[in-house]
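pipeline/complex-builder :: batch 7 item 3
reading input block
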Amino acid sequence: MKNTQVAIIGAGPAGLAAAIEIASAGGKVTLFDENQKPGGQLFKQIHKFFGSREHKAGTRGFRIAEKLLQDTEELGVEVLLDSPVYNVFDNFTVGYINSNKEQALQAEKIILATGASENALAFPGGTLPGVMGAGAAQTMINVNRVLPGKEIIMIGSGNVGLIVSYQLMQAGADVVALVEAASGIGGYGVHAGKIRRAGVPLYTSHTVKDVVGENCVEEAVIVELDENWQQIEGTEKHIKADTICVSVGLNPLTELARLVGCDFTFIPALGGHVPEHDKNMETTVKGFYVAGDISGVEEASSAMEEGRLAGIACAESLGLYDNQKASELKQEVWTRLDTLRKGPFGQKRKDEKDKLIKLAEGGEQIG
Amino acid sequence: MRVKSHPILGEDYRSEFVDITVDGKKIKAMAGEPIAAALLAAGIKIFRNTPKTGQPRGIFCGIGRCTDCVMTVNGVPNVRTCVTPVEEGMVVETQIGHGRWGENK
Amino acid sequence: MGSGIKKTGVPSREELKNIPGVPSEARLEEGPVAFIECVQEIPCNPCEEACRFDAIEVGKPITNLPKLNEEKCTGCGMCVAACPGLAIFKLHKNYTAKTSIVEFPFEYHPCPQKDDNVRCVNREGQFVVEGKVIQVKSPKKFDATVLLTVEIPREYLLEVRSIERKRCK
Ligand SMILES: Cc1cc2nc3c(=O)[nH]c(=O)nc-3n(C[C@H](O)[C@H](O)[C@H](O)COP(=O)(O)OP(=O)(O)OC[C@H]3O[C@@H](n4cnc5c(N)ncnc54)[C@H](O)[C@@H]3O)c2cc1C
Ligand code: SF4
Ligand code: SF4
Ligand code: FES
């Protein structure tokens, strides 16, 4: 059987950052991704990132991805693309498919960095062609350079909904409505400000009542919601559109963590059921680490930092770093990570993350 | 509709095309792009009809998870078009229900 | 719908009055200056990094709101292009006896050219007044962000924040 020191599942920002840490410490890494191209969500992020210089603030997401790929290449990380991992075993075997064949690889440590997937939303007409996830639309315009439609309604005003709305207009479409069930905008005000200046009508306290069309989306009926989230009859508005993008949150892709038996906790603010992990990003199953959206949905910058943490911790436990060196390196990452988890948007995530860490560390004592 | 010129990504300089056939009609696709992208670029939004009620479906998740976008490709049913790249001469068919092996081979 | 950034994506008059990034009326009279409409504490500081004159302070933690030192600000405009939130504008009130200029980032196609007459919009994207493009800047280091400088009648200085984006079709 093929073998490696650390197998990383998922080549998004978290997986790539982890791979770079381990390879720079002299470890042997194998990185898996089911896609034809590494980078995860990063290649469709064509906007400039927030943060500070050490988080690469002001740099567009896809450029950060290009840099990560260049680093992994230079460090000689083995990247297996088009290789979905379908199982991981607690003896550290990775089961994956490559060239239509089931294959296996033996590792000493495993990092799960599988990211998140978009939540669905049920509404009448919600299965008509033309209704799609905001992420699907974002891939179409920014990676494949194909517009899924010309007149678009975005449902959900979190950062993904706001950013994808902006990017749809950059690609040449019109966003004819931004519909949000809550009474306020979910994402950053500055992202919302961009699309307001471009004239996108905002409907807070509204939801989609119906989407109609013969074979594809032709029109949406939106309706106002009262304080109890009940539709207010008589407030319906008909809006012509050929595409409805749904952006109502993400949930961690945790199947593999379940298969291997990690303990989970339900934390809505982090996207739902998330594997408990300690300050090293190690789960309750020794030798299995998590990083990025799988361990709680945040953003690309924090995913990279978590990847680095998991990478350094793996390198340490493989003896590639002594304890002191490792704890110095980890401290640097924690400082940057804490910086990202401040303010009205970040503090809540920080509190929930701390909870997750406490659970895992408490669990260790009992076990 | 293709995004030829983009304020951030610049001009699209890709020039390698392949020909694929969709329900008997030839369309040009960009080499290496997913089938679903080629279809949307050609204005095709309906990828299949559901088994029981025959309702139309198109792309939804775009990352190979929901299976809404499956079609019959080179005679093989249930191919996820959002993650399967086009190839020269590929034959793509709107899938009716569960599809049948080899129906378009 | 209520008002303010959280409800509408548009900072209210009150919010703009209370943040440290907005210059005083006296300073607006004196010459070009940055006008920083960043009202939420998000983890971000490229504006501070971009300013060679030390006129913007975010400090630590980086969730602090950017504070403009209006005496130090030369109105060079570097921060306008650096802000990932596209939340900074450069205003020059007394550009001529009757007109002002507003400089802002623009990332759409088609992009107007120098001397074009353009339809200027406010923070809600509503048409306010016609203006004239007097400069289009897009050096490589802006990484595809274009800075447009538009001349407008002076009374609209605090309203105009962009130009109409050409609709599809
Ligand atoms: C649609 C969408 C838009 C987003 N927009 C933004 C944004 O604008 N800005 C921002 O900061 N954050 C955004 N995010 C949030 C996200 O947290 C980060 O962008 C970041 O990509 C998370 O990094 P990651 O490495 O954890 O996951 P991902 O980037 O999702 O990478 C995970 C990778 O793992 C692969 N994978 C999953 N399962 C398997 C398996 N079993 N076998 C093999 N490979 C597998 C996936 O194909 C993927 O390539 C967005 C997320 C989504 C889903
Ligand atoms: S306009 Fe120039 S001097 Fe003024 S704050 Fe911005 S970068 Fe600094
Ligand atoms: S760069 Fe822009 S968004 Fe970031 S802190 Fe400065 S003004 Fe606010
Ligand atoms: S669109 Fe979901 S699998 Fe293709």
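note: Helices of chain C lie at 5-8, 13-18, 25-30, 46-50, 78-82.
queue -> next item
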